[in-house]
Design brief:
single chain, five-stranded mixed beta sheet, 1 helix, about 30% strand
Amino acid sequence: MAENYWTHLRPDGKWGTKKEGASRDSRVFDTQQDSWDYTQDKARESGGEAYLKNKKGKIRERNTYGKDPYPPKG
């Protein structure tokens, strides 16, 4: 089953990776890049999506892995 993962800035200044719907972070990192790499790996393993939030909480980047549920015709 495809699962989505998020990279976000935590209140303590560290970066967390959280599975969508989870109450706690899967892992916590000192740098945004380390957290984003881990988020992408987890999304790739599950065939889901990886989301990267910036420091203000807005989505900065998004990657989809696995089969696209809406393939374009043509």
